[in-house]
Write a structure and sequence with these properties.
Elements lengths: L3 H31 L6 H11 L2 H20 L9 H24 L6 H35 L27 H10 L1
């Protein structure tokens, strides 16, 4: 699989592996907060800055575009897939809600820890479930589209931006997060 559609699918799957690692880290911090243990809110905040910038602004639009390609090339395979964009919007909203609740705690505004925990668990559960669905349904349908010969896509219509944490060079703003990820692996 060396064509454009296959490369995009490979990149999306790599993004999912990276996001799963970050979701585990968020979940760990939420569980610590729930148990009233020491919490690294700066780490949680860095993760949510990343999650609300790269996945929401680059990764999810690529998936939306891939769905549009599937719908155009193989309408029969796109049945039941129209929920993808709505789910991406819902996940983005949950991500911003979590990011904002973490920011309130970081700057010392009164935020109930249970609200942060609840926001974190809602976000983690929603994104995990969504990625599982994509991996086991959407991406398999895209693979069928590729096998049927629709494998060269107009890359210009796909959002292109390097991953600021897992890409070829971590951006300085994410240096602390990058260091924590290296330690976690």
């Amino acid at each position: 699989m060396s064509n454009d559609a296959s490369r995009i699918l490979t990149q999306l799957r790599e993004d999912h592996r990276n996001m799963m690692l970050l979701l585990e880290m968020i979940e760990t911090e939420a569980n610590r907060l729930y148990r009233d243990e020491a919490v690294d809110l700066d780490l949680a905040h860095d993760i949510m800055i990343y999650m609300t910038t790269y996945p929401d602004a680059v990764h999810h639009p690529k998936e939306d575009r891939l769905y549009a390609e599937l719908k155009a090339a193989r309408p029969d395979l796109s049945q039941g897939m129209s929920k993808i964009s709505a789910e991406h919007r819902s996940i983005a909203e949950k991500g911003l809600e979590l990011r904002n609740s973490i920011e309130q705690v970081v700057v010392g505004q009164a935020e109930r820890p249970n609200a942060v925990v609840a926001n974190a668990l809602r976000y983690v559960d929603a994104l995990r479930s969504h990625m599982h669905w994509e991996e086991h349904d959407l991406f398999r349908r895209v693979e069928l589209m590729i096998r049927d010969g629709h494998d060269v896509l107009d890359k210009a219509v796909f959002v292109q931006a390097p991953d600021p944490v897992f890409g070829p060079r971590a951006e300085q703003v994410f240096a602390r997060l990058f260091d924590r990820i290296k330690k976690a692996r």
